Amino acid sequence: MINRFFISLFAFLCLATSGQAQITNVVPDSTKPTAVARELYFENNKPSHEEIIKAFDAVDAGYYPIDCAPWPMKNNGYVPFVSFRVGYSDTTHELYIQYRVAEKCIRAVYGEDVVAKPWTDTCLEFFCTPGPGEEYYNLELNCIGIGILQYGLPGLPRNRAGKDKLSLVRRESSLGNEPFGEKVSKGALFEYSMTVAIPLELFYGISVPLMKGKVIRANFFHCADSSAFPHYVCWSSVLTEKPRFHTPKYFGNIFFE
Question: Which domain covers residue 131, as residue numbers?
């Protein structure tokens, strides 16, 4: 399927910063990694955490590693085990992500979206450019699902979505949703997972396109700026001197099967 994707010269992509879906032709970047968003099937429009996992398993969706560590000095040789799988539904008009993590330290100080600085906690991040322009979105969640959603153009101040918008993003972590400070393992790694459901209306406005066969540019990150084991890892490698996640030119491709 991925080979057919690269053979194809064009993929339809939608721009929605204006709230109106527009279609354009996009040539995928074959120099960047590609993840396939599997089509998932549900019996209702807001599937639960358990239903999302069941749907992923039903199509045998595989995981992609978030294991690029382009800034070894910042990581001090530490790279946690992090992976994700991604899916979608043209019936529910949602994008689904499931993260799987094993690491030495977990940190969850923030318990409210409004004041959260999730990157200082143990943080899972999804950045995407859903349209043909340069505007991109970043959804950053700490390990209990508390975080921020921002959007804007590269190099300019980010616009932070309010609680009304961020509350539409459904998230469930196996660690629960209550802050617990920091925990450092002296033995076995902490293992946890998080499921995220993102309504596509947040990216495309009221006119949500059908995603089958389309492509968006995206990247996935894991960081923990203020933890006992600070680290910065990514799915699509970022070739900057210092950790800099806000670099859309290094985003990979997500192909909606």
Answer: 2-256
Closest CA to 119 of 109, 134, 131: 109
* CA dihedral sign, ordered 170, 173, 177, 183: negative
Per-residue pLDDT reduced to its tens digit, 80-117: 999 999 999 999 999 999 999 999 999 999 999 989 99
Instruction: Output the CA–CA distances (angstroms, integers) from residue 247 to 216, 238, 244, 250, in the order listed.
Output: 15, 7, 7, 6
Please, which pLDDT band fits residue 13 given cuts at 50, 70 and 90?
very low
> Is the model's pLDDT at 175 over the cut of 80?
yes
For the chain, helix, strand, coil in percent to 5 are 15, 40, 50
- Count Cβ neighbours within 10 Å for each residue of 192-228 and write b for 16 or more, e otherwise: bebbbbbbbbbbbbeebbebeebbbbbbbbbbbbebe
Locus of tokens 């749907």: 55
This prediction has a pTM of 0.89
pLDDT value for 5: 37
Please state the domain count of the chain: 1
